[in-house]
Amino acid sequence: MVRKLLFPSQFYWGTATASYQIEGGWNEDGKGASIWDTFSHTQGKIEDGSTGDVACDHYHRWREDVALMKEIGCNAYRFSISWPRVIPLGKGRINPAGLDFYDRLVDALLEAKITPFITLYHWDLPQALQDEGGWANRDTAYYFADYASVVAHKLGDRVKHWITHNEPWVVAWIGYGWGVHAPGLKNEKIALQVAHHLLLSHGVAVRVLRDACSGGEIGITLNLSPVHPASEREEDKLAARRYDGFLNRWFLDPIFYGHYPPDVLELYIQYAPRIDPGDMATISYKVDFLGVNYYSRSVMKFNPAAGPLQAEGVAPEGAEFTEMGWEIYPPGLYEILMRVGRDYQPEKLYITENGAAFADEIAPDGGVHDLKRISYLREHFAQAQKAIQDGAKLAGYFIWSLMDNFEWAHGFTKRFGIIYTDYQTQKRIMKDSALWYKKVIENNAVEIED
Ligand code: FCB
């Protein structure tokens, strides 16, 4: 039997991208260098030796990309602004040509009846600020607020949905703690200080955006996963609880309650961040929504040798995985949406990213038949709809990603798009998942067979 799972009217159906992953134009029209320019130009950092110098050439092809979104029927689009395109050195002089690029993009989106959701920071910090310590330097939080103000004054008359940060956990740990992302630092001691400055910058930017953009909705996007114990053993449960604190509560608690989770703080007491008076109040300024990026769950087992948390991730047996090696686990989306609703009561939720990388190929008939992605999305949509039925205040869903793009340290080896990017010719090909998504949007419903 085929069941039609309906979504609320006015639901936002979109796709998401990030500036460094799609734009290219890395040194055009006065743009300054970002830490990702530096990092990708450093030998050995990117799996296939590629860079984002050209990426999807969206900087020149944005009209075509907006037209594709319109064709799919999307009514929303989440994209990020490149800070060094707007303020080349991160502070001080503004680059009008950079701002104009986003100004034109916003107008084109509105013309196509696509609501823009802007992420202010999706990881491309101006290199000049990194030279002064980057996010380890408290001043960066205030430069971020100045940058937010510049962008909001230019676009805030038309843009009503603002995301301060994308996944601060990834920035702090993968970028500064483990060195896999830019700026490539391997210094666990500063990761929590970096996280604190990111959260602080979020808070000050919320205030700035509130003043600059009347009627705007302001939020932050976190990478969240339910964390399950590898077994019913008490020590595995402890490991799961600790990892949940490290990954989820470390960010949710300060934003919604103004404090760090005491259990994790105790474990990381040596690396505890310096917190100035007033910081926690700033971090917990009210947000209008929480953006959830969901890809998979985490499964943890106790391992006394595995760092302060004594927790080690395991791959569940018999599970299916995407090309990223991430377990396909749709019920985790329902679980995380319900959990944040219950524990933190955000006014609204958006799924700001969900999607999957598979080894897509162009078929002899010229199409890209990405059936695994359709099935991944269908099952996650069904879980989201179930959460809405059960009271989750979910108002929109953004597929990662609009098109295949530069997947950070993986370069171009992972394809997440619902549109195929041929990097040789920059030709875009709608995958079957894009055509399928078009139907979902038309019906405002997902069909499942059971
Ligand atoms: C998220 C990032 C996004 C993309 C997806 C696959 O962590 O926010 O830019 O890389 O993962």
What would your notes on this structure say?
This protein has helices spanning 19-22, 35-40, 58-72, 83-86, 96-111, 127-130, 139-155, 168-177, 188-212, 234-257, 262-267, 279-283, 331-344, 371-389, 432-443; strands spanning 2-6, 12-16, 76-80, 115-121, 161-166, 217-223, 227-229, 289-293, 298-302, 311-313, 349-354, 394-400, 419-422, 427-430, 445-449. By secondary structure, the protein is an alpha/beta fold. The chain has one domain (2-449): Alpha-Beta Barrel (TIM Barrel). The strands form four sheets. The chain has an eight-stranded parallel barrel, surrounded by five helices. The chain has a three-stranded mixed beta sheet with strand order 7-9-10, covered by helices on one side. Strand 11, helix 14 and strand 12 (394-400) form a beta-alpha-beta unit. Bound molecules: beta-D-fucopyranose. Beta-D-fucopyranose binds next to loops.
